[in-house]
Design goal:
CATH superfamily of chain B: P-loop containing nucleotide triphosphate hydrolases
Number of helices of chain B: 8
Largest sheet of chain A: 3 strands, mixed
Number of domains of chain A: 1
Order of helices and strands of chain A: HEHEEEEE
Distance between the termini of chain B: 54 Å
Strand order of the largest sheet of chain A: 2-1-6
Number of domains of chain B: 1
Oligomer: heterodimer
Radius of gyration of chain B: 19 Å
Largest sheet of chain B: 7 strands, parallel
Radius of gyration of chain A: 17 Å
Structural class of chain B: alpha/beta
Low-confidence stretches of chain A: none
Helix content of chain A: 25-40%
Helix content of chain B: 25-40%
Distance between the termini of chain A: 35 Å
Shape of chain A: elongated
CATH topology of chain A: hypothetical protein PF0899 fold
Order of helices and strands of chain B: EHEHEHEHEEHHEHEH
CATH topology of chain B: Rossmann fold
Shape of chain B: globular
Largest interface: A-B, 35 and 34 residues
Mean pLDDT of chain B: 93
Strand content of chain A: 25-35%
Number of helices of chain A: 2
CATH architecture of chain B: 3-Layer(aba) Sandwich
CATH class of chain A: Alpha Beta
């Protein structure tokens, strides 16, 4: 369970940015979360609430965009989205797809601020 | 000044701080000509026994050292110290994984130029360590024959983040009716092309092939370091 420490990093990062914008109030944090990031969405959401307690971000929302895994198919020579992270092969031709293009994201994209 | 909500773009990796330290560590390892190998597995997969055997066998051949992460005890470091190799314990307290900063501070006072190989044993956990780059050149994920063949499917993220799968405790394979073909199939499903090594730290079965693999990797990373100078 490392989601709490990740949530705390998100809160720190958002606080710093908000201060840079004249101590604005943070309404929401937009996050991109890859399916291969090793972070569980539900655990992160509840950790976020805890991490916000008694900070300037208390009451703010964490809005998570889940990023599916995208691999490069060496046979079709195009990127392909995977439905499952237990089966790394092209959904069209079945070729093994070791190259991961997307899905490891754990990135704060933007902040919604007020004031 | 407007009071309307507005959107400010940030685009920052949450683990940026860790990644910056990890990159600096990787650069230090490369400059010092050290091959850094980290070990991850579930608790009880045999990381410490495997590492003890590794250190004991390597010690006469090259300069090897280890950092070992544990939540609360120093038992592992004491076990590993029997190999006579330099060993340092990293106590993580309640933290369920190692982070690059812990590796960095554990290495304070160590002259990396005096080493050929550095092992970093992570905390026993197949979930949390997958998100943290430690600056290692190679990440080994260990899977013991007693754990079941479907571990890679249950923990695809950590297997996908690793470079090599090591099947451990092969001396017990027959007793637990380990289905090796299924295990290999599952490893390849979550990480196509992954190198797989099979070892028994108890009987030394497979250790020769594993040490030869390490030697090959060490030679190629030394060559790469020399070429970039």
């Amino acid at each position: 369970m490392h989601e709490l420490s990740i949530a705390m990093s998100i809160v720190d990062m958002a606080q710093e940015e908000a201060e840079r914008h004249g101590s604005a109030q943070v309404i929401a944090v937009h996050l991109r979360l890859g399916k291969l990031s090793g972070v569980v969405k539900e655990a992160l959401l509840s950790s976020y609430e805890m991490a916000c307690e008694a900070t300037a971000l208390e009451g703010s929302q964490l809005l998570i965009e889940e990023i599916p895994v995208e691999v490069f198919c060496p046979k079709c020579e195009v990127p392909r989205a995977l439905d499952s992270i237990q089966w790394f092969c092209c959904p069209e031709c079945g070729a093994a797809t070791p190259t991961v293009l997307h899905g490891k994201e754990l990135e704060v994209v933007s902040l919604e601020i007020k004031g | 000044m407007t009071t309307e909500p507005r959107l400010v773009e940030i685009r920052k990796n949450v683990l940026k701080q860790n990644d910056v330290i990890a990159r600096a560590l990787r650069e230090r390892f490369r400059e010092a000509g050290v091959l850094a190998v980290s070990l991850v597995s579930s608790p009880g997969a045999g990381k410490t026994a495997f590492l003890e055997k590794t250190l004991t066998l390597l010690r006469p051949r090259c300069r090897v050292a280890a950092l070992v992460g544990d939540l609360a005890t120093e038992n592992d470091a004491a076990r590993l110290a029997r190999s006579q190799a330099p060993v340092k314990q990293i106590l993580t307290g309640t933290v369920c994984h190692l982070e690059a900063a812990m590796v960095q501070s554990a290495l304070e006072g160590w002259d990396l130029a005096q080493l050929d190989l550095l092992f970093i044993e992570n905390v026993g956990n197949l979930v949390c360590p997958s998100s943290y780059d430690l600056g290692e050149d190679l990440r080994f994920v260990l899977l013991s024959v007693t754990e079941g063949e479907d571990k890679p499917l249950k923990y695809p993220t950590i297997f996908n983040s690793a470079d090599v799968a090591v099947i451990t405790k092969t001396d017990l394979a027959a007793a637990v009716e380990f289905d090796e073909a299924a295990a290999l199939r599952n490893i390849q499903a979550v990480r196509p092309g992954m190198e797989v090594l099979k070892v028994s730290a108890k009987t030394s079965e497979g250790m020769d092939r594993y040490l030869a693999y390490l030697e090959r990797r060490r030679a190629s990373s030394r060559a790469a370091a020399a070429a970039s100078k």
